[in-house]
Amino acid sequence: MEYDREFLTGTVGVLILCLLSEREMYGYELLREAERRSSSAFQLKEGTLYPALHHMERSGLLKARWRDSEAGRSRKYYSLTAKGRRQAQSKRQQWLQISAAMRSILGDGHA
Amino acid sequence: MREDLDALIEPIIEAARIPSRRRRDELRRELRSHFEDVGQAPGAVHDAVAHFGNTAHIGNSFRQVYRRDYILFYVVKVVACIAAATTAAIVIEAIAGLRLERDADAWHLSPGFAHAAPFGIVLALALVAAAEATRAPFMRSRAFWSLGGYTLVSACAFSVSPNSGGAFITAGILAAIGIAMSRAATAWTLRAALTLVAFTVVEYLLHQSLGIMFGPIRALATSAILLMLWASTITIVAFSDRTFVSAFRTN
Fold first, then answer.
1. What is the DSSP string of chain A?
2. Are B89 and B229 spatial neighbours (Cβ–Cβ below 8 Å)?
3. Do residues B153 and B175 make contact, with C-beta atoms less than 8 angstroms apart?
4. What's the pLDDT tens digit per position in A17-75?
5. Which helix H or strand E contains B100, and what residues bound it?
6. What is the count of structural domains for chain A?
7. Cα dihedral sign for B162, B163, B167, B172?
8. Does residue B164 contact residue B128 with C-beta atoms inside 8 Å?
9. DSSP class of residue B138?
10. Which of A2-6, A55-59, B32-36, B141-145 shows the lowest per-residue confidence on average (mean pLDDT)?
11. Is A19 inside any structural domain?
């Protein structure tokens, strides 16, 4: 399903923070994970994800390190910093409240 | 396949304008590793390249991320350029002001050096500001900051010494002419000749308008020194521009 871009503005950062709060991941893994968990509702563009990762790394929310996988392939893994964990917690709370409020207004799918 | 990836990745790296080579290499490596992850299936990478998004748009997104680094690097470049140009101006004025004292058989600086050296510094500053303001591609913000910076320095100097106002205005006029002349012709000798003539005319007319005795020969001699200062400054500006641009070159 194609979403209005306006809806998705600001969600990329939250998605990244929430996914990385579970474990460290590399860019492609983040894309696949977001797609899998949202049943393909969120199909992030690489061109959106990577600048966002770099921005968050420079803002001190993420840290990155290069690590070799079992297959011997080198990848850049991102993980949350202490500041990033606090931010993830805060954003998560905000989104839960917003989605609960929206659901109560929309009637949870019932007309 | 490698060509397809290069055609996608290199324009992004270039548009990102990341001053640090290490960071550029790291971004290139990260994007390459992304496509390695996409898979080796026929068409997989091609599809991923198509899905990646507009390279200009992505490059611009990275540019926003590294904007602070770029501005800092640019400021360092301008400050270094001003330092080199003003140092060269002092050296030129000192050489021009050297006099051999016959009785003492020793070199000393002429009394005029006390006025010429500060004017040389102001002219070098004005030339750098004019060059930055009009550098291609023209950007309004850059012109604003360059001319605003020069105006601010002028205002500060004026508040300390009200007599300095004339020097800043004259230097501004000469710099505008000097930069216009430096782009008026391709041949170096022709540019220098045009600048010398223009400087001589301006020096002569300015002094005449102020009622100061200043003949054409003296105007020509003064302009010859200013021409050396112009030549050293635009050479320094051109060198710093080349160094700055090459710092972002991706290959």
1. -PPPHHHHTTHHHHHHHHHHTTS-EEHHHHHHHHHHHTTTS----HHHHHHHHHHHHHTTSEEEEEEE-TTS-EEEEEEE-HHHHHHHHHHHHHHHHHHHHHHHHHTTT--
2. yes
3. no
4. 999 999 999 999 999 898 888 887 777 788 889 999 999 999 999 999 999 877 778 89
5. strand B98-101
6. 1
7. positive
8. no
9. P
10. A2-6
11. yes
Contact state of A28 with B54 under an 8 Å Cβ cutoff? no
Give the domain range for residue A97: 5-106
Convert the pLDDT of each residue in A82-93 to its tens digit: 999 999 999 999
Chain B positions touching A73 (Cβ under 8 A) are 33, 36-37
CA dist., res. A79 & res. A63, Å (int):
6
Closest CA to B88 of B189, B235, B203: B235
Task: Sort out which chain B residues have CB atoms less than 8 A from A29's CB and list them.
Answer: 37
- Whether A111 maps to a domain, the answer reads no
**CATH, residue A62:** 1.10.10.10
- Token representation of residue B61: 């997104």
> Is there a contact between B181 and B193 (Cβ–Cβ < 8 Å)?
no
Quick one: which of B57, B6, B66, B56 has its CA closest to B31?
B6
Q: Which amino acid is at A41?
A: A
Does any domain span residue A66?
yes
User: What is d(CA A81, CA A61) in angstroms, rounded to the nearest whole number?
Assistant: 6
Is B58 close to A51, i.e. CB distance below 8 A?
A: yes
Q: What is the distance in angstroms between the Cα of A5 and the nearest Cα belonging to chain B?
A: 15
